[in-house]
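@channel sequence for tomorrow's demo:
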Amino acid sequence: SGPVQTRMPFPSGYGSHPPNYSVPSGHYSQVPSKAAASHLDNQYTASYYPNYYSAPAQHVMTPPVGTNVLNTQESQHLYNKNPPHAVGSAEGPLQGAISSASYLHTSAQPSYSAFGDHYSTSVSSPVASQGFPLNSDHYTMPAVSSAVYPPIPYPPVAAGSVYGQAFTSQSLPTLGQFKETNAFSSQSTSVPHSLQQQVPVGYNTTLPTISSAQAVQDNLCRSLTGSVAKVNNQINTGGVDSSQPLHSVSQSIPFTKPGAGTSASSAVISSGRTPAPSLSSQPQSSPSVTQSPELALQEGMQYGGYINNQASSAPAPLSSSSDDEEEDEEDEEAAIDSSSTTSSASPVLNNYDALEGGGYPEARSVTNSPVPPPSVPQTSKASKPFGYGYPALQPGYQNATPPTPVQPSNPGHHPGFQHYPQQYPGVNQLSSSLGGLSLQHSQQPESLRPVNLTQDRNILPVSSVPAPVPNLNSDLRKLNCSPDSFRCTLTNIPQTQALLNKAKLPLGLLLHPFRDLTQLPVITSSTIVRCRSCRTYINPFVSFIDQRRWKCNLCYRVNDVPEEFMYNPLTRSYGEPHKRPEVQNSTVEFIASSDYMLRPPQPAVYLFVLDVSHNAVEAGYLTIVCQSLLENLDKLPGDSRTRIGFITFDSTVHFYNLQEGLSQPQMLIVSDIDDIFLPTPDSLLVNLHESKELIKDLLNALPTMFTNTRETHSALGPALQAAFKLMSPTGGRISVFQTQLPSLGAGLLHSREDPNQRSSTKVVQHLGPATDFYKKLALDCSGQQTAVDLFLLSSQYSDLASLACMSKYSAGCIYYYPSFHRSHNPAQAEKLQKDLKRYLTRKIGFEAVMRIRCTKGLSIHTFHGNFFVRSTDLLSLANVNPDAGFAVQMSIEESLTDTSLACFQTALLYTSSKGERRIRVHTLCLPVVNSLADVYAGADVQAVVCLLANMAVDRSVSSSLADARDALVNAVVDSLAAYMSTASNVQQSMLMAPNSLKLFPLYILALLKQKAFRTGMSTRLDDRVYAMCQMKSQPLVHLMKMIHPNLYRIDKLIDESTIHVNDRVVPQPPLQKLSAEKLTREGAFLMDCGSIFYIWIGKNCDNNFIKDVLGYPNYASVPQKMTQLPEVDALSSERTRSFISWLRDSRPLSPVLQVIKDENPAKTEFFQHLIEDRTEAAFSYYEFLLNIQQQICK
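C-alpha cells (generated this afternoon):
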C-alpha cells in the first residue's frame, strides 16, 4: 500500500568528501578554499543530508469538466477537460518536477502541452529592513540584542549542494498524499521528512513519452499528472586544496591600464551546449525502473527545448537559516520548538521591540493609479513617497487605546478571564455569524449584475479598478491582509475542483511579500507561536478554545498557548492572548532569535562587475554609475561589516586591490580568461568603512581610465566566473553592467535575431536561452546565497533571453535600457540615474527563504517569479527586494465542505542589512462557496489577468507565441461561455459577462497587443524578452499599468477634483478610454504606461496651456524631443507637475517622460497603446468582442 516508488542512484558528491578528494574538470573551476579551517568549521563539516532522497510518486486524479459548451475540435481551452489520469497507472499528458537545470521536451502533438517556463525559476532578490528603534513610547522592555559580529572569514562549507531541485514556474509534485512523519499532519501543504532533505541536481535527463488515446483539449496550465525521468549522469562537486598554489598574478600595476598581462595556465571552459530538439520530437526512452525502499526516482519536468549535460559546480550553500531542511518542526524558518524560548530559565515576558505602525491600515492602498482621497489624507499610503521606510515613532501604538478586539459571536459572554473556558473569537465563531455565504439566497450583488459587452461600450471606470472586497463579515474584513501584499484570483474559493473547473477561471495567488510599508508591527519575542503540526504562525484567524488552547486555521490542530503569550505588553495585561499584536494584525514581522541561525548572519556584500569595452565607454554609462555610487555610498544598506568590490572587463578581466593601507587602488589584470582565477582573494572585497577613501578614488578615476580603449570584445562569462568565486565565501549581491553581446570566453553568444522577422505574424523564435551557461552559473550563485542583478544598456541585439537567466535563477532583477547613450538619449541617462538611486538605497534582504501555506485541501503546484526552488514548496531567494512580485497557481485536492473559510499564509525569512534574522508573515482569509454564481461574484479580474500573463509567458517559451496567444483568447471564450450557459434569459446574439468580469476581454486584448505577445508589428527580440521578464517579476499594481495603460486629459486639471498629499494639491482627472476617439485636437493627454509617460498635444491645444505647462509660446515651437516639464509659476503648471510627480512616487522605477506631437516619430508608439482601436495586425475592442461571441456560438 502507499504511493508508487521507483528508484534512482543518488548522485555522488552530495555527502561529505574524503580528505583527498579532488575537483573533477567541470563547467568551470571551483572556488579555491580560503584560509585554513577556523573553529567554525565544525558547524559545517557534517553532511546534513543523507545519501538517499525519497520522492514517491502519487496518484493524482484529474476530474473531468462538467460543461461542454464549445466544439472540442475548434476551440482550445485553458483548463483541463481530459479524462481522469493516475500517475503510474494510466496514460495521459505529463508534467512533473524538473531538475535544477534540465530543459525538457514539450510535445507538439497536443496544442497546449503543460507550461514549461524559462521565465520562472529566476529568484526574487531578498531585501532587508533598515533598523528600528528599540523602545516604544509607552513601555521599555528588554529587547533581543542585535549582535554585532566581527568581520571574520567564513570557512568553506562541506562540499555538497544543499540546495536541491530547481523548479521553474511549472507544475510541482503535489504533496497532499505523502505520508507525514512525526509532528506533521497529513495535509496537502506539508512536506514529508524525506523531501526536506537533499534533492539531487540532475542535468542529463531522458524523458518518457506517454501518448494519449484520445484527442484532448489542452490548456495553458495542465493539471499535474506527473512525469518521471531517469537521471543518467552523476554529479560530482568538491573543494580545492588550498595548500596547492593554483595561479600567479598576471600584473600588479599602480593604476593606469597596461597592455595585456601574462596569462596563467589555461583550461578550456566548455559551455556545455547540446542541440535543441524540435518541439515535436519525442523523448528518447520510457522509464523502466524497479522499486527499492532506499532509492527514489526524481521526477522530470517539462521545461523547454534543451537538455543540459553539465553538472553544477556549486559547493554547498551558505545560509544563516536552518538549512536542515529535513527537520520536522521548523522547515525553512528555524530549528526551535513552536513554544520554546530563548532561555531555559524562568519565563520571560514577550518583548516588543519597535512595534512599528501598529495595526495594518484598514484602508487599502492604491491598486492601480489615482484613487479618491482617504478621509485623512495624511495617513494614506499614497501620501508617502515610494520607498518611504518605517516611521521613527510608532503611530499605531502611540495612542493609549490598544486595537479593538473582535468580540465573540456569543453575546452572553464577555472576554474576561473569569469566563474561561470561553471560546475566543476566531474562525469558528466568526464564520458562524456569516450565515449563508451563497449569494444566490440574497439580493444579487453588483458583482453579478449581467453586462452586455457588445452594447455597453463605456465599461471603463472613471478611477482605478479597486480590488474586490471578500464577502466576509466586518470583523474579519478589518483583520484581512492588504490586497497590495497578498491577493487571490478568486475572493470566493470554490468548494471543489469540479466547481472550479466549471467556472473556467484560474485559482492562484499574487504576492508582493517584501513591499515597502508605512506601517508594520515588528515583534521581538522569545517565543514565536506556531502550530506544532503544519508550522503555521499564529494569526488573526485562529480560534482560541480557551485561555490555554488555540486551534490552527489551516490544519485545525489544537495547540497550547505558551505562558509568555498570555502577557500583552501593549495593554500591560495578563490573560488576554487574543489581544496580542500577532492576533490583531494579518501582516507582522518577527525578529528571530539566534535559534533561527546556523551561523552569524552574513554581512551586506556588494560586488560591481562593469563592462569597459569600447562600446561601453562610447555609451558613457560609467560616468553615471560611478557618480551614483559616490552619491549613495553612505546610503548602501548595511552595518559596520559591509563589504564592497569591483571587477571590470573587456577582452580581459581586471580586479582592484582596495586593501586599507595602500596609497591608491591597485589594478590586477588576468588575461587568461579560459582559466580565470582570483589574483589576491583576500583584498578584492574590502570593508566599506575602512577603505572608503580608496573606493572613492577608484570611482573618480574609472570613467576616464578606459577613454582611449580599443578593446571591442566582451568577456562577460569569465568575469562572472570570477565574481562567483569572489562572492562564494559570504554571499551577497553582484551587479552586472553589460552593453553588448558577450563575444569571448565561456558564455559567448552569437546574434540570433533576424531584423526582417521582427514583424512576423507567424513564428517568433529564440525566446529561450542559446546556452545553459548563465543558468548554471545562476544556480551556483543561488547555492552560495548570491544574487545577480543585470543592467543591460545596449543599442544592439544582446540576446537578453540568454543573459536574463543569470538573474532569473539567482533571485536577481533585470534592468533594460535600449538605445542607451548618455548624450544622444538623455532621457534614458536620467532614468538610469534615478533607477540607480532607488536600487542602491532600497531595503535588501539576504539569504532568504519563502514558504506559502494554505488550508488543508488546497495545494500549490506552480510558481512564477525570480527564485530557486530548494524543495517542493520552499523558495530560495538569495536576495529579496521590495519591488519583486510572485505568483502561484493552486488546485483543490480535497473538497472544502467541512469549512466555510480558506486561509493562506506566506512566511519570508531573511537577513536584514543590519544583520538581523527576520520573518515577515502575511495571512489572507477568504470564504468558501458552493455555487458557480458565487465564484463569478468573487472573481478578481486584474489578478486573473496577471496570473494568465505569467502562464502565457511560460507557454510562449515552452511551445510557441501563437499557442500562448490562442490560449489567452480561449481563456476569455471559456469563462464567458461557462457563465452564459448558467445565466438565464441569455440570447445567442448577446455577449454577456458578470460585472466582476466585464473588463476581462478588454484586458486580454491589451495583453495580446503588449510587446511580449504582439505579432505583425515590428518588435525587437530583446524588447519582447524584457517585457516577458517584467511580467514574471512585477507586482500586480505595476504589471497592470504595463498591460493596460491609464489615459488622462490634463489640459483642464484646474477644474478637476483634488486630494492633498504632503502639502501638495494633486488633481484626480478621470480615466479615459484607450481610443483615438477620446483624443481631441483642442486637448492635451497624459498616458501612463508604467515605465514611460507620454504627453500628447493636440494641434489646436490652448496656447495658455502650452505656455504655462510646456514653457513655449505656441504649438509650433514645441521641440520634437522634449523629456522634461519646466517649472513655470502658473497654477496649471503646478497642478500638472504635481499630478505627474504623484504618479511617479507610486512606483520603483523612474518613468521616462516624452512629449508627443503629430509630426513626432514617437507618436506611432503612443498610438500602439490605444488598444481599443484597430491596427493592421490586430482587432479593435469591438471586433474582438464579436470574435469571442462567434467562437462561443460555434
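heads up for whoever presents: The chain has a mean pLDDT of 71.
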